[in-house]
Amino acid sequence: MEELNETERLSDANEKQKASKSNVIKSICYNAIVCALYVALVYLFYFMSYEAVQFRIAEILIFLVLINKKYTIGITMGCFIANLLGPFGIIDAVVGGAATLLSCILIVLCKKAWLGVIFIPVSNILVGVEIALIDHLTFTPAVITTLWVMLGEVVVAALGLGVYYLIIKKEKFIGFIGDF
Predict the structure, then answer these.
(1) What are the b/e assignments for 132-142, b being 16+ CB within 10 Å?
(2) 170: domain range?
(3) Are 131 and 51 in contact (CB under 8 A)?
(4) Quick one: how far is CA 77 from the chain centroid?
(5) Rounded (10°) angle between helices 139-167 and 125-134
(6) What is the pLDDT of residue 16?
(7) What CA–CA distance (Å, rounded) separates 62 from 11?
(8) Hey, what long-range contacts does 18-23 have (CB within 8 A, 24 or more apart)?
(9) Helix 116-123 and helix 125-134, axial crossing angle in degrees, nearest 10
(10) Separation of alpha carbons 45 and 88, rounded Å
(11) CA geometry: angle at 82 spanning 76 and 88, to 5°?
(12) Of the ranges 19-23, 141-145, 175-179, which one carries the lowest mean pLDDT score?
């Protein structure tokens, strides 16, 4: 009888280990898809994804972190890669990636979707300052550049919030994309 219990315990442990590995693989795959989608959206809308006046449509993906905080990885990596391949290169990859990461973390911590419309533009003050420094702008043009970046982020964040509220009504879809 004890042998059977030991066998059952080993079987349960193996099942848990398999489930854990499956979740890790699923997490990697889902984040790779989100990362690729982010990069694809940036390049699809390239004409408005870079420079001082930008409406980066890919930023609507940030609201995925409210469905599952693990999406922070895919969104941040997507931003990093898109910026690395963009006109400002590694500097923009690091600064823009940091701004996106900060937005994701703040949204996850507060757990309120509508605050994303505030957090996303505020964290992108970093991007406005970066562009101003790269373009060697004086104070007033730097402030204007930062405000333009923030305005674009507010518009996209509001759009993303709307999309998020539409998506969360679809329980099967949320179960599919949020379960890993």
Answers:
(1) beeeebeeeeb
(2) 2-178
(3) yes
(4) 8
(5) 140
(6) 67
(7) 39
(8) 23/180
(9) 20
(10) 17
(11) 115
(12) 19-23
> How far is the C-alpha of 78 from the C-alpha of 89, rounded, in Å?
14
Helix axes 71-84, 2-44, angle to 10 degrees: 30
Q: 17 vs 111, which has greater pLDDT?
A: 111
Could you give the number of structural domains in the chain? Answer: 1
Res 171: pLDDT:
86
User: Which CATH number does the domain housing residue 124 bear?
Assistant: 1.10.1760.20
- Contact indicator for 39, 149 with CB cutoff of 8 Å: no
**Residue-wise pLDDT tens digits, 34-76:** 999 999 999 999 999 988 788 999 999 999 999 999 999 999 9
Rg of the chain over Cα atoms, rounded to whole angstroms, equals: 20
Tallying the residues shown for the chain, one arrives at: 180
